[in-house]
Design goal:
This protein has 17 helices and no strands. The protein starts with 9 loop residues before the first helix and ends with a helix. By secondary structure, it is an all-alpha fold. The longest helix is centred in the middle third of the chain and has 46 residues, at 260-305. It has one domain (10-436): Amino acid/polyamine transporter I. Keywords: Membrane, Transmembrane, Transmembrane helix. The chain crosses the membrane at residues 12-33, 45-64, 84-110, 122-141, 148-169, 189-206, 226-245, 272-292, 313-337, 349-369, 381-400, 406-425. This is Amino acid/polyamine/organocation transporter, APC superfamily.
Length: 441
């Protein structure tokens, strides 16, 4: 049987993870975070980083125990139970299925600010149609193109920060180094956590490197290290960039909260820079949306092939292009919800699925190491009980801090998953089908 060659080093895996996270998203969602936190965006990112740090530790522990693709689904299935593993997979499916919608909605919001005469729904539909056609044809972005897009993103981020520092320097009343964006007398912890719950959207994808297990050198050591490094590097980028942007625009008031960075870019850099910024953000959102839709449709295809979803629809491939057209089109139809949702609700809705999956992975560490493995020494209690419990509690706190509408939509998705699981297992009497991620890789 053909196998993938193990050629990826730690650096290569970390670069993939950072690229998957799309660092420029820190600017794309700045406005909704500033409004949610009352102008304390860096504090919300710092709170999100702490929560994600403990969850990343748990992902690393489980990746070392089960160096297979499938991430949360595989970890929960093997460590706790197949049925709960299905629920974890169902939560992850929410992210894959609805993530393109949020990505295209953010891009459309910024294009709407740049071209106010064009209705925003037109941009949403344009994103959906173009990316769906590309994915149906099966065009894949080459590694060199992905690397180029990463360079563009980092250059735009670096320019944005440099211009923010220059802008701050022109205002003698604003110090360049201050703790005010992190702590002040007016801050409210519920608002910070509400913002952190949204900020975690920027971290989605830190666990995506688990899909590279079969191609990574010494995956039991490399993948856990990569997950931790990606989380810390990404978190430091988000905290650092948001810090300087917050100093440059301390107010939480914007003409359009969904495209606030467009307004800030004009203030700090003028018309030329705002054009460069817009190109960088749209290119990043387009590439991210293309990848997210391709990943989501591939997951739906894999679930159909393995009998988790109806085979006749989801396992069908185009005879001409060899791509899962039905799954791609379903992702496109789901993305039409962007015409009725705003950025805050759409990102929060996706985060509900992420927090549910994160919580179950933290729980998996306790079940695998502390309960089943009986790792009860002092060091083991810290690593396999206390740390994952902190991660679990942080994820649950973030989940309940989400937008109320997002929680209602997330709970509805969870109930739908439980009902489908009941039907799939004959009233929970038998185990659900198991997905073969190696075949899908």
């Amino acid at each position: 049987m053909a196998r993938l060659q193990r050629t990826l080093s730690l650096g290569s895996v970390v670069l993939f993870g950072i690229a998957y996270m799309t660092p420029i998203i820190v600017l794309g969602t700045f406005g909704i975070l500033a409004q949610s936190t009352g102008g304390m965006v860096p504090a919300s990112y710092l709170a999100a980083l702490v929560a994600m740090f403990f969850t990343a530790m748990s992902y690393g522990r489980m990746a070392a125990a089960y160096p297979v693709a499938g991430s949360a689904y595989s970890y929960v299935r093997k460590a706790i139970s197949p049925k709960l593993g299905f629920i974890a997979g169902w939560a992850v499916l929410l992210d894959y299925l609805f993530l393109p919608m949020a990505i295209w909605l953010i891009g459309a919001a910024y294009l709407g600010s740049a071209f106010p005469s064009v209705p925003q729904p037109v941009w949403v539909l344009a994103f959906i149609v173009v990316t769906s056609l590309i994915n149906i044809v099966g065009l894949k972005l080459a590694n060199t193109v992905n690397a180029l897009l990463m360079i563009v993103q980092f250059l735009v981020l670096a320019a944005f920060v440099a211009l923010c520092i220059h802008y701050i320097g022109g205002d003698a009343s604003t110090p360049l180094w201050t703790l005010t964006p992190f702590f002040n007398g007016d801050m409210q912890m519920p608002l910070i956590m509400s913002g952190a719950a949204i900020a975690c959207y920027s971290f989605l994808g830190f666990d995506a490197v688990s899909t590279l297990t079969e191609e990574t050198k010494d995956p039991r050591k490399t993948i856990p290290r990569a997950i931790m490094m990606i989380t810390l590097i990404g978190g430091l980028i988000f905290v650092g960039v948001s810090y300087f942007v917050q100093l440059a625009h301390p107010s939480a008031q914007f003409e359009n909260v969904d495209s606030a960075a467009y307004e800030i870019a004009r203030n700090i850099g003028g018309d030329l820079f705002v054009t460069i910024f817009l190109i960088g953000l749209i290119v990043g959102q387009f590439a991210s949306g293309l990848s997210a839709q391709a990943s989501g449709s591939r997951l739906l295809f894999a679930m159909g092939r393995d009998g988790v979803l109806p085979k006749s629809f989801f396992a069908a491939l185009s005879e001409r292009f060899g791509t899962p057209v039905n799954s791609i089109l379903l992702c496109a139809v789901v993305a039409l919800l962007a015409l009725k949702l705003d950025v805050t609700t759409s990102t929060s809705f996706i985060n509900f699925g992420a927090f549910l999956a994160f919580s179950l992975v933290n729980l998996s560490v306790i079940f695998h190491y502390w309960i089943a493995g009986e790792k009860r020494g002092l060091r083991e209690v810290l690593l396999f009980l206390i740390c994952p419990l902190i991660g679990l509690l942080a994820d649950v706190w973030l989940m309940v801090s989400l937008d109320k509408l997002a929680i209602m939509l997330g709970v509805s998705w969870l109930v739908l998953g439980c009902l489908y699981l009941a039907w799939l297992t004959g009233g929970f009497r038998r185990q659900p089908p198991e997905m073969d991620f190696q075949e899908a890789a």
